[in-house]
Design a protein that fits this description.
Blueprint: H1 26-37, E1 41-48, E2 52-57, E3 60-66, H2 68-73, E4 86-92, E5 97-103, E6 109-115, E7 118-126, E8 130-136, H3 143-156, E9 159-165, H4 174-183, E10 189-191, E11 212-216, H5 223-231, E12 242-244, E13 250-252, E14 257-259, E15 265-267, H6 270-273, H7 282-287, H8 289-295, H9 312-319, H10 324-369
Parallel strand pairs: 3-5, 8-9, 8-11, 9-10, 11-15
Antiparallel strand pairs: 1-2, 1-4, 2-3, 4-5, 6-7, 12-13, 14-15
Bound molecules: guanosine-5'-diphosphate and zinc ion.
């Protein structure tokens, strides 16, 4: 059957959604204005290969590369597009590709350390509205892990939803749901079974038109099964999400920006799956509200709640009104975050120094080749 003329059909013959359905809104529209005047088009990054991106325009997908100028101006890896980013592109439909000229500001970002010894941050996914923190209601259930994911989510700017999957395997889920509620600090808690569909409707409000969701959770908790249930098809095969190509490398075999039937998208990238803790500590405060409340009553404003006299946190711990595991988990996360933010600041200062040196060098060269240049604007 032919589609109605005003409907857009991609090369696979499927109807495709408008940019608004996949997250374009007044925030991005506002920031896009200067690029619109340049004649460029808005697009969302659907997948990232090494130097090449698949970008989703209003009318379908194109392969795209970052322009030389944008590459030159980039100061760090986070200035390059990642999955979920909105970009300004110049399409060349005759060649079937496009040039990315600019990156729009991000509403939220998930970052990780690039490698163990470097602290440059890598943005693994951007512009996620809701992140489902998936835990199994089986042996996987672990409050400390839920806290950890809540911290990561709050650092990113996305709204967390705690998802307790495999409720069909748990004879008495209620006490575990209550326990999860105590650490969730206001985030919704949903008990579901991706396998039977039980409770799945509770997730639908977060994946409607224009919204972008993502899933975080250990391997095997059912993230792929949840995505498949929400898409209503076998978009991803559980348990075999990657396959080797002819040269023995591993290649992704699925779209990382998954468009749900109707509207809304889910981002599922290897980067999200391997996420490590990164951030400046704001997430820690949101996840341990009772400790931060107690901290307000410590004698010293900069109390570290370790050996200081008049510490309300230690007092609550001794009286048993503060859980010892919560306290330990708080100290551990705080140490990691403190370490990272110190390293991050040093790096930022280093970048600024090198940038100023570069500018000085360029202007010296410019003066040499165009002696009058320094008298112009
Ligand atoms: P992922 O690694 O987080 O993507 O997990 P998968 O979606 O691949 O699921 C891992 C295994 O758990 C698979 O064998 C699924 O069939 C199973 N599984 C996922 N969700 C449920 C559920 O709600 N109940 C039960 N019993 N099994 C599930
Ligand atoms: Zn204290």
């Amino acid at each position: 059957m032919d589609a109605a003329p005003e409907q857009i059909v991609n090369c696979g013959g499927q109807l495709i959604m408008s940019l608004a359905d996949i997250g374009w809104d007044s925030f991005f529209d506002h920031h896009f204005e200067p690029f619109r005047q340049a004649g460029w088009l808005p697009a969302r990054v659907a997948r990232e290969h090494r130097e090449l991106y698949d970008v989703r325009l209003d009318e379908g997908e194109l392969a795209a590369r970052v322009s030389g100028r944008m590459r030159h101006l980039a100061q760090s890896r986070s200035d390059f597009p990642t999955v979920g980013d909105w970009v300004a592109v110049e399409p060349r439909p005759e060649d079937g590709d496009a040039t990315i000229h600019a990156l729009l500001p991000r509403k939220s970002r998930f970052c990780r350390k690039v490698a163990a010894l470097r602290t440059e941050e890598q943005v693994v996914a951007a512009n996620i509205d809701t992140v489902f923190l998936v835990t199994g209601l089986d042996a996987n259930f672990n409050l400390r892990r839920i806290e950890r994911y809540l911290t990561v989510a709050r650092e990113s700017g996305a709204e967390p939803v705690v998802v307790l999957n495999k409720v069909d395997l748990c004879p008495e889920p209620d006490p575990l749901i209550d326990e999860a509620g105590t650490v969730a600090a206001g985030a919704p808690v949903c008990a579901i079974s991706a396998a039977t569909g039980q409770g799945l409707d509770a997730l639908r409000p977060y994946v409607g038109a224009g919204s972008t969701a993502a899933l975080l959770g250990s391997s095997g908790v059912g993230k792929t099964t949840i995505i498949n249930s929400l898409t209503g098809r076998d978009a991803l095969k559980t348990g075999e999400v990657r396959q080797a190509d002819g040269r023995g490398r591993h290649v992704t075999t699925w779209k990382e920006l998954i468009e749900l039937p109707g509207a809304g998208v889910i981002i599922d990238t290897p980067g999200m799956r391997e996420l490590q803790l990164w951030g400046d500590g704001d997430g820690l405060r949101g996840s341990f509200e009772e400790i931060e409340d107690l901290a307000g009553r410590c004698r010293f404003r900069d109390c570290r709640h370790e050996k200081e006299p008049g510490c309300a946190v230690k007092e609550a711990l001794e009286q048993g009104s503060l859980d010892a595991d919560r306290y330990k988990s708080y100290l551990k996360l705080r140490r990691e975050l403190a370490y990272l933010s110190v390293r991050k600041d040093q790096r930022a200062r280093f970048n600024e120094r090198t940038r100023l040196k570069q500018i000085a060098k360029w202007s010296r060269q410019r003066e040499k080749h165009h002696p009058k240049a320094r008298f112009q604007g």
